[in-house]
Amino acid sequence: MKSRPEEIKRSSQAHSVAIVVARWNSEITERLLNGALRYFEEIFSNLDSINIFRVPGAFEIPIACKTAAETGKYEAILGLGCVIKGDTPHFDYVCAETTRGIGAVSLESNVPTSFGLLTVDNVDQALERSADNSQNKGREAAQTAIEMISVLDDMRAINNEEC
Length: 163
Known about the structure:
Blueprint: E1 17-22, H1 26-43, E2 50-55, H2 61-70, E3 76-84, H3 90-109, E4 113-120, H4 123-129, H5 137-162
Parallel strand pairs: 1-2, 1-3, 3-4
């Protein structure tokens, strides 16, 4: 079993992953995307099995993730976006519904769907969480996706052994 992060090594066989990234706040979301892609470059010999889909904003991430899951092509999906708090309740609605939607995709499809949505008070917080380092939240979403593929594969293997 290789479900622990330290056991996931560079592999010649890349997993098929869809990345759904919001264009809104693109200065930040492109940094999240780059963090995810850098992680995948570290563990896969190529990125041919990674597909990137851009949507207008965070609110559109769940339906794109759901559609990706329904194709049956992807072993994991990442939802990357950034919502920066403003002066109206719009922030709360978008964050809550996007969070709920991304979670529902995982539960309804059994395809691990990683939450890479920054919900921050200001641009400085967004820049910090999307920096080019190991704490980049896009990178963390990619790590989570690969770990969950491994965990679910391990669980399915155990289940198959018991049958």
